[in-house]
Amino acid sequence: MILHLCNIFAKTPYYEDATIEQWRFLIYRNFDKTIKILVGLSKDLNCLLCGDLSKNYNFESKLAGHYRYGHNKKPIANYTIENVLNKSPDELGDLLN
């Protein structure tokens, strides 16, 4: 299945067609940037993947550590594909601010 999503990891974001496996590998290569984006999207320092089960973290670095070591890469990649890469750069910028 080919997905038409925005590659936000490039210097200039652009839309690209790729399979879900190719998108996952792109996220794996840019895993630190992905973590920074997910931490930025979390307004109250809760894990976006855990949802209601998440505890409140005091620092962004603690939440980033939770993403790195508390979750496998594949669920993070799937969440990023479904909820981050399908947004335009302008929409993503509004969410991060």
Task: Explain what this protein looks like in three dimensions.
This protein has helices spanning 20-29, 31-41, 60-70, 73-83, 89-96; strands spanning 2-7, 14-19. It is α+β, with helices and mostly antiparallel strands and 97 residues long. The chain has one domain. A two-stranded antiparallel ribbon has the order 1-2. β1 (2-7) and β2 form a beta hairpin. The mean pLDDT is 90.
Concise overview:
This protein has 97 residues and is an alpha+beta fold.
Number of domains: 1
Topology pattern, helix = H, strand = E: EEHHHHH
Task: Please indicate the percent range of residues in DSSP E strands (runs of 2 or more).
Answer: 5-15%
Spatial strand order of the main sheet: 1-2
Structural class: alpha+beta
Give the beta-strand count: 2
Specify the biggest β-sheet. 2 strands, antiparallel
Fraction of residues in helix: 40-55%
Estimated radius of gyration: 13 Å
The helix tally amounts to 5
User: Which runs of at least 5 residues are low in confidence (pLDDT < 50)?
Assistant: none
Q: How far do the termini sit from each other?
A: 32 Å
Shape: globular
> Could you report the average pLDDT, rounded to the nearest whole number?
90
Structural key phrases:
alpha+beta; two-stranded antiparallel ribbon
Helices and strands in order:
Layout lengths: L1 E6 L6 E6 H10 L1 H11 L18 H11 L2 H11 L5 H8 L1
Antiparallel strand pairs: 1-2
Helix pairs in contact: 1-2, 1-4, 2-3
